[in-house]
Predict the 3D structure of the following.
Amino acid sequence: MELGIYEVIWLFLTYSMIGWIVEVAYHTILFKEIVNRGYLNGPVCPIYGFGVVFATALLAPFYDNLVVLFLLGMLLCTIIELIGGWALDKMFHMRWWDYSNNRFNIGGYVCLLYSLMWGVGVTVVLKLVNPVIFKCIDALPFKVGVVIMVILCAIYMVDVVASTYKTIGMSKSIRELEAIAAKLHSLGDNISNAVGGTVLESEKLAEETREKLSAATTEAKEKFDAATTEAREKFAEAKDRISAVAYGGVRKAGQMGEESKLIWDDVTQETKDHIIELINQVRSTHVYKAFPAIRTSERMTRLREMFAPVMGRMDSLNPVKRIMDSAKTKEPDEKAHKDDMSTKE
């Protein structure tokens, strides 16, 4: 049958729907999950329509040679899948399908196994299915066919616009989530650096003070034993002042950590509803449900890890918690040190 615009459009519409049926059935068998596969909301997968139209138009001279037909069909569909996967990845910065775990893949966009399946599919379609489709097209009254075709194309175009708008919205939501995550991460780093720096300085001061105190105690031990009660009290008072200076920084760090935690909690509380709203927007999009590779992509995995504390346990401030715990443990150590000195006295 000679290919004109009428036949090309009907081939595209027909195989887009057949491809969608194949995709839904395959996904259901493989993942035990029924989802509306494809980029669009309607029961169509455009990539199948484009593939068959190009194969029908370009491979007609090779219909009688099954080997050449298989090889060229495999090559043609692989190129279409490669370009489509690469373009979607560059536009939305996510893999819609990923063959990275399959052997002999190219960038994860295509692999040998599916290319062989494409070759078999093209051969079967061109040799067995196309003749039936062409008979159906020929049997349909031309005017009726044009009316139906125009209606379907109009629905198709509306679906393309709506689906593209929704997908762009998903991409914007993901970018906004990444921006929020970056701000929260930056805040956490600033808090940790500030508190951590205070603790390091305090620990250094405490260590130097302990060394000086030990040296002074050893040097003055004989004099101290012979000193009057009044001298002992003055020495003890001086020691307490030194200890207060040494551990004051740690207490300050603990207080700073507590204040920082309150600030962090306030920020996450203010943004939590917005974060949940954005995440739900992403999850509700058709393409997110239709393509498992998007859900398990590195970008989405990174976002889930970033927002795990916000969405669940508020344990983002583990560094501050450790610092506060450290400050608490130093207080008993200080008390034990005082008791030990009192015993020696």
Observations:
- The chain is about 85% helix and 0% strand.
